[in-house]
Structure formats: C-alpha cells, structure tokens
C-alpha cells in the first residue's frame, strides 16, 4: 500500500472515531440520567470501537511516515486526545463510573479537534528529533498527561455535585470561568476550520525584530498584525498594529478564539438562560462525591510517576543525545519541572495536610491548566528548542 493510501486510511479512521465518540456522548448522557444499563453499554461499546479506530489511525500513520507520529502539534495533540480516551476506559474498568466518560470524552474531542487545526503535512524530522528516546519521551508524557487529565474531569464533576450553583460564590464563578475557557477552545476550532475551508489565506510582510523582512501567512482574517505590515501587494492590513517583538499571527489566532468562544458562550446562555454550571449540574445528581474525590486522587497517583519518567528522566536522556546537555532551562523544560513540582505538592498536601474534596478538585483543575499551558502555549508562543509546530 502506498504512503498516500496509508495516510488517507489513517485520517479516515480518525474521522470515523471522532464521529463515534460524538455519538457515544448521547447514550452515555442518557445512562447518567436513567437507572437502566443498556444506554451505558451502548455508549461504552461505541467508545471502545472509537478507541480501536484511533489506534488504527496511529499505527497506519506511523507506517506511512516511518517514525512515531508525535513530532508536531497535530500529531502530539491527536495522540494526547487518544490517550485520554484510553485513560477513561482504564478508569471505567476500575471504577465503573460512566459519568466520568460524559465529561472526559468531550475534553478528548476538544483536544483532537484543536490538533486538527494544525498542518497534517508529513515532513522529514530535523536531526534533534531523530531519536528513539524522543518517541519514548513524548509518548510517555502524552499518556501521563492524559491520566492526569482524568483528575480534571472528575474534579469538575465533584464541584458540580457539591457546589450550590443557585447562589453566587467565588467557587461557582471560577468553575463557570473554567467551562467558559473550554467553550473558547471549541470556538477556536470552529472558526479555524471555517477559515481554512472558506476564507482565502493572506500573506503579510513586515520587518521582524532582527530588521529582516518576514512573511506570515494568515489563515484567519488578520485583525492584529505587526507594525508597518502590508500584504504582498502592498495594501494595508489589520485593525491593530503591535510591536514586532510579539508574534502577531499567533496573537491574532488567540483573539479570534476568544471572539468565537465568547459568541458561542453568549448564544448558549441566550438560548438556555442559564450558566453552564447550572446546565451541567443535573448530570451529577447521582454521583458519589467521595468516589469522585478518590478517582481524582488515584489518577494523580498513577499519572505523576509516569510524568516524572517521561517529562523529566526520558526528556533529559533525549536532551543529552540531541543537544549534548541534560538540562538547559529551555521554556519547555522549565514548565515540565513546574508541572512535576505542582503535582508533587498536590500529593504532599493530600497525604500530609489532609487536603480532600473541594481542595483536591481545584488542584486537579489547576494542574490541567498547567499541562495545557505547557503543551500548547509554551510550544506556540514562547520561543525555544521545542517550538517545532
């Protein structure tokens, strides 16, 4: 089978898996609200089939590109989302809590959808990426991050179950903000997909911070550009010009994400007349808070040592091979260390200080935020040796 055929079959497998997971949310949601087991079995079966197809995607793409498909943002985020689906299936096998899937699967779909906005083009690996230790490092980080992300989902479930969302409180406000940020990501996926299909790309030229002419290709309508930027035909472009020390193209994408996400959030609110926390709370009425707290803790107990291996130990071995040093204070390395220290503190407070319940839930949510910042923003916004996307 040709390389193109393998890539096509791989992409189709991932697409079908994505659709199956979308469909699976319906019977899983019905299972949460009903006492029968049939809906849960259907939803779980669809999830298993989708996960199998996701693995088919991964294996076929590996065969097509001749290396583990985890070397750019599309491949990494997709693998991260796949591992989150697999992590949910592991947690369900251990605890039989179908409600965890109702909150985990959408996050997995958001992650995969976010990854899909990046280029899927296959390109040769740069020399520093041509190492088996890279594969071991990245795959372990993705798997451990996925397991840790389970604690994010169960933390949200715990808070929805225990908080009185009918009254104003800081906890309820912050939880609504967390859900709003998830909607922002969905908005970004929608607008990025639309622009990629229906909007012409715009090439913008400007002088970068090194005083050299640089060309940036905007897939989204340019609202923010660098100072004195013009199109290749010499026309003025953009609504706001900023310093050339900042990557205006990436900032433009972030602005579009918040515009689209805020509009989507407003539409949901105008239709339902309810905040997201009020809409989602009934789905947690049958949840045992102590069990959600236990799953949150166990997910961190499993994910933390794996992250220590993948994010620090294996990463340092790869760094020594690629750059002849174990540690160099690269932004990605610094944030990996921050993530490690945060979850170490999480376990310390849990075991030594008796932090349980709401405190554990909020720590899990903050931890997920650190993981997302490390895997997304550090790669895209902060220049460093890991900025391969």
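^ structure tokens above, recovered residues below v
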């Amino acid at each position: 089978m040709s390389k193109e055929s393998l890539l096509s079959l791989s992409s189709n497998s991932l697409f079908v898996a994505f659709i199956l997971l979308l469909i699976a949310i319906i019977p899983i949601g019905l299972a949460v609200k009903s006492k029968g087991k049939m809906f849960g079995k259907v939803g779980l079966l669809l999830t298993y089939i989708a996960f199998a197809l996701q693995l088919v995607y991964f294996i076929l793409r590996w065969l097509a590109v001749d290396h583990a498909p985890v070397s750019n943002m599309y491949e990494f985020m997709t693998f991260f989302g796949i591992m989150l689906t697999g992590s949910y299936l592991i947690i369900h096998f251990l605890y039989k809590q179908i409600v965890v899937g109702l909150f985990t699967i959408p996050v997995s779909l958001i992650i995969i959808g976010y990854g899909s906005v990046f280029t899927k083009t296959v390109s040769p690996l740069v020399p520093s990426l041509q190492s088996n230790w890279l594969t071991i490092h990245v795959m372990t980080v993705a798997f451990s991050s996925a397991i840790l992300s389970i604690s994010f989902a169960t933390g949200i479930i715990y808070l929805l179950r225990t908080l009185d969302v009918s009254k104003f409180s800081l906890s309820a406000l912050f939880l609504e903000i967390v859900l709003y940020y998830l909607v922002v990501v969905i908005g970004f996926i929608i607008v990025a997909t639309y622009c990629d299909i229906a909007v012409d790309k715009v090439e913008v030229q400007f002088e970068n911070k090194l005083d050299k002419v640089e060309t940036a290709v905007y897939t989204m309508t340019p609202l923010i550009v660098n100072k004195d930027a013009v199109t290749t035909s010499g026309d003025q472009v953009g609504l706001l010009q900023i310093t050339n020390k900042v990557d205006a193209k990436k900032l433009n994408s972030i602005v579009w994400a918040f515009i689209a996400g805020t509009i989507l959030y407003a539409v949901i609110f105008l239709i339902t007349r309810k905040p997201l926390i009020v809409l989602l709370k009934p789905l947690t009425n049958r949840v045992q808070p102590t069990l959600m707290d236990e799953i949150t803790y166990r997910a961190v107990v499993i994910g933390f040592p794996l992250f220590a291996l993948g994010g620090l130990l294996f990463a340092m071995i790869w760094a020594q091979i690629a750059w002849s040093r174990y540690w160099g204070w690269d932004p990605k390395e610094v944030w990996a260390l921050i993530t490690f220290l945060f979850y170490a503190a999480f376990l310390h407070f849990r075991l030594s200080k008796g932090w349980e319940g709401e405190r554990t839930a909020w720590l899990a949510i903050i931890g997920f935020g650190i993981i997302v910042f490390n895997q997304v923003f550090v790669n895209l916004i902060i220049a460093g040796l890991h900025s391969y996307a």
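The two ends are 28 Å apart (CA to CA).
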